[in-house]
Amino acid sequence: MADSSYCRRESGEINLNIKQWKKLAEVLDVPLSEIYEGDEKQVFICTDNAVINNSGTGNIYSMPESVLENQHKYIAKLEAEIEELKRLLEKK
Fold it and tell me: What angle do CA 52, 56, 59 make, to 5 degrees?
């Protein structure tokens, strides 16, 4: 695969097809389910008068504070898990 083609896929401009996902899983020697990202996009639907502004150059989303708080908690949880995994790796 050409570098430019790879870069477009890595940046999300072009999606990988299932054949490419399978090949990637094979090369990485991991199960497909561990790395596969479907074509579905994540969408937030806010029902509390959140503002969405699309200026043509990008999207700006105003989200409820509770969503951001939950994201911060989740990030903290993931960081703690990473530290625990690092600790376990150091023991080996």
Answer: 35
The enclosing H or E element of 6 equals helix 3-10
First to last CA, the chain: 37
CA distances from 88 to 74, 75, 76, 78 (A): 21, 20, 18, 15
Using CA atoms, how far apart are residues 81 and 83, in angstroms rounded to an integer?
Answer: 5
Helix (H/G/I), strand (E/B), else coil: 16 = coil
When comparing pLDDT for 74 and 24, which is higher? 74
* pLDDT 10s digits, 45-92: 555 555 555 445 455 556 677 877 888 899 999 999 999 999 999 987
Least confident of 9-23, 33-47, 71-85: 33-47
Spatial neighbors of 20 by CB under 8 A, at least 6 apart, are 9
